[in-house]
Known about the structure:
The protein is an all-alpha fold. It has eight helices and no strands.
Amino acid sequence: MQIDGLLLNESQLDNRLNKSVHEQRSGEFALLLAMLSHDVLDFSQFHLPKSELANTQISEQALRNELGAGPKQALAPEQFDMLIGEQNAFRLLSGGLTDIRLRQCLNPEPLTIRDDKCHVPLNVIDNCEPAVRKRYYTNNSVTERPQMDAAAFYDGLKDELIHQPLYLATA
């Protein structure tokens, strides 16, 4: 038995899936779906026709101008400013929420306060599973093991009181 062609993605079916749904033929719909490839890389979204760009080196600023995007939002401020919240509260009182939104569109505030790639906010850590939290805390904690006094440990094992049976007090 030879297979002439494989049914890999839904674009090979044209509109048969659509017809089977509208004509309420659930068996045919299920069969067609079962025949499709289960590999994500075979989905038709990943096989769209590609168009060649005349200028492959387009700067970010040129794209922003072409799309009409606002100014770039910084990831973190260059200098920490404690007065951002106070200024926003004043704007909220004077102009309302629309004033704050307009200000954010014209001059976007940085996304985070810190410029530290290794910092994870506590609210993110608190939302993690316990195993992930434990792994995070053990990886980020100073792990200095105290030195063991082996001589004192072995001297303690020689003590006769350790080897005595345990007596429970009865009342």
